[in-house]
Amino acid sequence: MLSLDASAVRLGASAANKTDAIRQVGQILIDSGYIEPGYVDSLLAREKVANTFLGNGIAIPHGVPKDRGLIRRTGVAVLQVPDGVDWNPGDRVYLVVGIAAKSDEHLQILTNLTDVLGDPAEAERLAHTHDPADIERRLSSGAEPASPTAPKPLPDDLPNHFDIRIDSPHGLHARPATALVDIAKGFDATIRVRHGDRAGDAKSLIALLNLGIGSGATIRVMAEGPDADAALAALREAIEAGLEDEEDAPAADSERQQIDWEGRSIAGVAASPGLAAGPVWQYQRGKIVVAATARDPSAELTRLERAIEGAKRELAELYEEVKSRYGAGKAAIFRAHAEFLEDQGVIEAARTRIRDESRSAGYAWEQSYGQQAKELAAQKDALLAARAVDLRDVGRRVLRLLAERIEDDPKLPDTPVILVADDLSPSDTAKLDPALALGICTASGGPTSHTAIIARSLGIPALVGAGDSVLDIADGTDIVLDGNSGTLVLTPTDADRATAERVQADMADQREEERRACYQPAIMTDGARVEVVANIAAPEEAARAVEAGGEGVGLLRTEFLFLGRDQAPTEEEQTDAYTTMVEALNGLPIIIRTLDIGGDKSVPYLSMPVEENPFLGERGIRLCLNRPELFRTQLRAIFRASGKGPIRIMFPMISTLKELKRAKALTEEVRQEVGADPVEIGIMIEVPSAVMMAEELAAEADFFSVGSNDLTQYCLAIDRMHPMLSRQADGLHPAVLRMIDQTVKAAEKAGKWVGVCGGIAGDPRGVVILTGLGVKELSVSIPSIAAVKAQIRGLSMEQARDLAKRALACPSAAAVRRLR
């Protein structure tokens, strides 16, 4: 971590004015070897467009982004002006902290400044100290352990409590802590968690993370209030069940190929397996500029509230997008992020700065989340400390909505590169295109960071924790990144390049072999066949599905066209999107599910009222039938695209025969208006009433597709996103399997086929059981296609039917999973 060198601190200076002070601190940066002389002009240029006064007599002049090439290496210098210098009207500065930053590695020093900003006595002391080491120590290490911001022990425990050991290998990190907070918020009781001599509010994610509860720690959960006993019982059950601790982890070192590289290298921490060779691209976040003060506190409070709500909507959309592409486990990261935005401690601290100090919403929010992130970063447990990156990611998301402007926003080149950064936030990583991001190397972070988890999901080789020196690698430098061993080869020799080429060629051969096999049909050893198709949620995924061996698309989630915008997509927009996908499939069938949206998703232009239980409300086909023009527009677009290839239409959340008949009648009207040929029409089997009416529904539908995720939650009465109960929402529960069995039998009686497009379709145990139940089509995520087809090719129908029969007779999901 970067620290301030005492030799770059100059005491007892005097300055005629702000320009003189900036030139003096710039000279210190030059003398220390941090910058070229021309960068001083950049420091002055910044002052013309931004206010660098922080408060409490401190200013932080720094250059404009375009002049970073004049920075030799990142560094910080301090000019002490005991008599002060006028900075802005009414602002007098005593400490001038000059910054030359190639990336974000100076941020710890700036974070340490927040302590000083909140402590006028400390700011006064540093402004007049005669020992440069005082300033060096204060800005390099932050507050002393006795800082008033440290959590304070409670004087007395609450009357009701239990003690419990945290056995998770990663302790109470973000995901299980989020689950615990969600449970605690469901009770009126005051609930606290004690770890050692510190305690925190169980309804605050940041408070829990700040307790630093690691693996093996014993905590005391305490409650007081009318429902305290019920709260403690629920929390004990959830903690004993493990909460939602499903943290992904990289492959074990023993499973990785170790290579002895000859060139000069840097050792990092392996985070995502694979090998990358190519040019470096230094990833630098854009500078978010906010005003320091504001005249109307009321207006700023409103701005803050709106920005937080906007960030919540963004996170909800990001959660849905990542879940559809990589699964709920990876998307859970963004649920934890959303929980940060519910933390009243952070929000109220920002509000106080707005009300009491006349600060702008942007400045107040930046200070508030920055202070909390600092406290998280100071945790001894590396995993918990890494959550500071998540809080900063969330903080920046809100800050962007409050910005006056954003300077030098990062853009990736249009050619493949290896990204190097101080750290990448989960939001940064989730937006990466694996075709352009050959590999990722970060100076900080760990293998269990959310950045690493998402990199593994994307299949991007990555190493983390490589140190600040990687930030000095020039753009365009050819390097080798070994994600298997966590090695960055800075000066690859000819032998290293040959090795890299050989390993990449071997990997390419293996992928090619898998690719060739993935096109083989999923025909069982005794001749039975199951179609394996893809779930997709974006136009570009259609081609990827074909390349992965998909025999078509079993579920196109059309919601991507409707979310994250101010008005509904036009008929032309939808037609173009559907046509693009149909043409990419080149004759393979696609099942287009009509709009499946409801009160659980934020769609402002639909003006949908908030529902107490949106999963039982106006959603799916109910919404479409209640808003026929929205439905008609989508159907017209689908029929217009149907002339380009085989399309099937599927209605979501059909619960009654009447709904299906109404939807079919409206669809037929639209088809005749467009003049299109008839298409097959199927329905999602997602609710118990559809299962019980399957024989009647089969007489009207051409096919069924079981949405096992929703069917499971409705069958078991468990919200699959519930923090405490979600683990019990297992699609292999015998009750769910019996519903699927009843659905298949009803469809077969009518001569219709059944597919499954939920999570169990890609589950290895689920593949066998569903096949044995008579399911004809499995619709899975694109990366799962080859594995599912290979598994089916190794089975006989007799084996599958035997396992399915035994599964139906099991008493629980756990028993099903124990079957062999």
Description:
- There is one protein chain.
- Helix 6 (174-184) packs across helix 10, helix 9 (297-326) runs antiparallel to helix 10 (328-340) and helix 12 (361-377) runs antiparallel to helix 14 (387-402).
- The protein folds into five domains: 6-141, Mannitol-specific EII, Chain A; 160-240, Histidine-containing Protein, Chain: A, CATH 3.30.1340.10; 253-285 and 410-503, Glucose Oxidase, domain 1 (3-Layer(bba) Sandwich), CATH 3.50.30.10; 287-407, PtsI, HPr-binding domain (Enzyme I, Chain A, domain 2, Orthogonal Bundle); 523-818, TIM Barrel (Alpha-Beta Barrel), CATH 3.20.20.60.
- Helices cover 43% and strands 16% of the residues.
- The chain contains 30 helices and 27 strands.
- It is globular, with a radius of gyration of 29 Å.
- With 820 residues, the protein is an alpha/beta fold.
- An eight-stranded mixed sheet has the order 10-19-18-12-15-16-17-11. An eight-stranded parallel barrel has the order 20-21-22-23-24-25-26-27, surrounded by six helices. A five-stranded mixed sheet has the order 1-4-5-3-2.
- Belongs to the PEP-utilizing enzyme family.
- Pfam families: PEP-utilisers_N, PEP-utilizers, PEP-utilizers_C, PTS-HPr, PTS_EIIA_2.
- Residues 140-163 are annotated as: Disordered.
Give the count of structural domains: 5
Secondary structure tally: strands: 27
Spell out the CATH superfamily of the largest domain.
Phosphoenolpyruvate-binding domains
| Gross geometry | globular
User: Per CATH, which architecture of the largest domain?
Assistant: Alpha-Beta Barrel
Helicity, as a percent range: 40-55%
Q: What is the C-alpha radius of gyration, as a whole number of Å?
A: 29 Å
Give the class-level CATH name of the largest domain.
Alpha Beta
Uncertain segments = 142-153, 245-256
Tally of individual helices: 30
GO molecular function: phosphoenolpyruvate-protein phosphotransferase activity
EC number: 2.7.3.9
Cofactor: Mg(2+)
Family: Belongs to the PEP-utilizing enzyme family.
